[in-house]
Amino acid sequence: MASSPSPHESLPTWLGPIAAHLKTSNIHQDVVDSVEDIFGILQERERVRTQLHIQSRIQRLAPSGTGPEVDPVGHYSTASASQPQNIRKNRYRNILPYDRTRVIAGSTQSGGGRGDGRYINGNWVKERYGGGVWIATQAPIEGTFHSFFSILYHTISQSTLPPGLSSYVPANGRVHTVVQLTTFSQGQAESYFPQRPGTSLEVWPEHGCPDPPFRITTKKAEEESLRESRWQESTVTIQPQSTSSASQPVDFTHLLYEKWPDHGVPDSKDEDSLLAFLRHAYAVNHSLSQKANPGAADAPIIVHCSAGVGRTGTFIAISSLLRAYGLLDSRSAAQPQAAVPQSNPNPQIPKIPIDDLVAQEVDSLREQRLAMVQRETQLQMIYQCLIKAFRQRVS
């Protein structure tokens, strides 16, 4: 069984074969072949999950629990996403959230529990090795803006969390940070908040939701840069349009990384800026979380690209391994973490190399949200960024 990462290791032995052939921006063909083989195993396992997911849609199974005996079909059910009133809320018809880990958007009238609440195309995701918790979503589309902002406005209800996550998410905490990995262009993401400071827009709830509309105001927007890459940091206010004295405004921080193409990866020269951006996102969220709830665990971060799986999954996987090895921040040195239970969708499919933590991490993410880390180049970049982070620490 793979051992827990130690923050004191200069380089894990399992990374050695890849690190030995990493030369500037070129990777030795043996490494490419190795990554290709690993990606093939991951894809075969995902193919089995997809078949079970499709079977669950055909059988119209209800969402299942996660007890000791798991129904292999219901385990991958996306029944909520397939409801007639929710189909139009999905950006892509083939990227749907699993019922057992889906995010329940809050409401002033929510009754509590996994069966209540409003639909959004997003999943709760826990890092296998780093232990951090994220909300992985698609980029909000019109008609879902209010639900998206509700996740940020309302405190997190423990009763709506998937089984096993409550101990990792601060009670009555609130999400403070949104990370966006795609630009507001080419149909990848709608502009769901004002881009100019001092401007506002009004967002109305979906039909049947009793909540008041939100006024969304951008208070501040700044650009940070590293070499040729840059990201934008905005402070945004959510203000319910209600006469109730309890309807106080809530701020969140939006971080936009602009150098990650759809279905691809940043150029090798941008990897440094991506690592810097990831650490910046961690620092921002830590500061906001501790200001709101001193001493508690940091709040989850919402992260999205366009579909919320390729770039999003890659970003979370890098974060997990950096955190596990103490490479994310001085506070992120590894501590024993309970790994996400791994399902065995079919005992006859190839097993993941047990000593390859990247492969194990990606497969764990795919257990929680469909299609995480979509492309072989994205898998390869996870290895590259991890090796680069180790080398930066040594130098």
Automatic annotation (TrEMBL):
To which species is this protein native? Coniophora puteana (strain RWD-64-598)
Where is the Tyrosine-protein phosphatase domain positioned along the sequence?
54-389
Superkingdom field: Eukaryota
Molecular function as annotated in GO: protein tyrosine phosphatase activity
Q: Which InterPro entries has this protein been placed in?
A: Prot-tyrosine_phosphatase-like (IPR029021), Protein-Tyr_Phosphatase (IPR050348), PTP_cat (IPR000242), Tyr_Pase_AS (IPR016130), Tyr_Pase_cat (IPR003595), Tyr_Pase_dom (IPR000387)
CDD domains, A to Z: PTPc
Q: Specify residue ranges for compositional bias: Polar residues.
A: 232-245
Q: Which family does it belong to?
A: Belongs to the protein-tyrosine phosphatase family. Non-receptor class subfamily.
Q: Where are the transmembrane segments?
A: none
Matching entries from Pfam families are given as: Y_phosphatase
Q: Where are the annotated segments for Disordered?
A: 63-84, 226-245
Q: Which PANTHER family match?
A: RECEPTOR-TYPE TYROSINE-PROTEIN PHOSPHATASE, TYROSINE-PROTEIN PHOSPHATASE 1
Q: What is this protein called?
A: Phosphatases II
What stretch or stretches form a coiled coil here? Answer: none
Q: What residues does the Tyrosine specific protein phosphatases domain cover?
A: 275-380
